[in-house]
Structures are given as C-alpha cells and as structure tokens.
Amino acid sequence: MQKRILYLLVLPLLSSLFSCDNQHPDPYFYFGFRSYVVDQNGNDLLNPNNKNSIETSRVRAFYKKEGKMIEYEVSGICFFREPDISEDKYSVSVALSLYTDNEGKSVTIIRWNDYESDTIEVKISKKEYSIIATDYTLNSSAPNWVNKELKIAQIIKNR
Predict the structure, then answer these.
(1) Which of 37, 39, 66, 114 has the largest CB neighbor count within 10 A?
(2) How far apart are the C-alpha atoms of 39 and 29, rounded to whole Å?
(3) Looking at residue 67, what is its pLDDT?
(4) Phi/psi of residue 35, each to 5°?
(5) What is the DSSP letter of 72?
C-alpha cells in the first residue's frame, strides 16, 4: 500500500524528468484519490467478511474525456480493483484524470455496482512546469477527508 502511494507521488516527477515532449497520450495517472467505504454504522463495506459488503470484482472506474466516459485500465497504477488493507481498513485507490472540461475540472466516477456510484471532481491547473490539483469534490460536496494531504476520504453508503 505504501508502495502504491509512493508511485502516485514519484511517478509524475519521473515522467516529467525523462519525457521527450509534452505529449502524453493518456495522462490520467498523476493524481490519486483513495477511499474507505462504510455504511451509516461505520461498517467497512470493502471488507468481504462484513454483511452487505461491496463485491469488489464489480467495481469500475471511469474518467471523462471530451464528453465521453472512458473506463480505466485495471492494471498498473491507474486503478486498483482489489482493495488495499491498511490500518485494519480496506480501501480503493483510483488515479484522477488530467483531462479537463471547459471549466478546468477533471471528472472521475467510481461505479461500485449497477446502482451505486460516486463522482470525484477536481480543478486542474496546468502551468509550464507543474500541474496542480485543487478544489476536490465528492458528489458535488467537500469530501469527508480522513487525511486531506494524502487525499484519503471516507465514503458513507446507506445500506
């Protein structure tokens, strides 16, 4: 788990140091978002041993590009379908897209199953030598941050 966080932090630096040009065919792996998912009683819904847990094999993540929703690849750093276990909690990580709409917002959707999903929006500011993510929202509201610096939020599901 710490290795994945390290990748999320180091990979953008390495890619900018060794890239030949500014063209990135699919630059969606720069910013991460990790979430714990619990019910209204605080039960971990990503833990398969808990009642009403989310079937993680059905979880999908999408990013918005030119008005279309595109599914993330399952391999690599882009999206981790199998939950991580840290501090006795399960979590799901997703990298946020650098593709932005006309307001400079990146949109990523985590679809937990056929009827539940969460939308993460983040403002992306692109400068000459840096890319900054600010103004995170989860379903149009401020995320319930567990750790704001590491971008770890808690999502509460009504079950």
Answers:
(1) 37
(2) 29
(3) 87
(4) -140, 145
(5) P
Find all residues with CB under 8 Å of 20, minimum gap 6, and list them.
Answer: none
Strand, helix or coil for residue 56: helix
Q: How long a stretch of residues is the chain?
A: 159
**Average pLDDT over every residue of 129-146:** 91
Find the largest Cα–Cα distance for the chain: 50
In percent, how much of the chain has pLDDT > 70?
Answer: 71
Token pair in block for residue 157:
């599901």
Total-model pTM = 0.73
Distance of CA 127 to the CA centre of its chain: 22
d(CA 52, CA 54): 7
Cβ contacts of residue 82 below 8 Å, gap of 6+? 56
In this predicted model, what pLDDT tens digit does every residue of 45-68 receive, in sequence order? 999 999 899 998 888 888 898 889
Give per-residue burial for 126-144: e unless 16+ CB within 10 Å, then b.
eeeeeeebeebebeeeebe
| Sign of the C-alpha dihedral computed for residues 95, 33, 113 and 58 taken in this order | positive
What is the tally of helices (H) and strands (E) in the chain?
1, 10
Between residues 89 and 156, the one the model is more confident about: 156
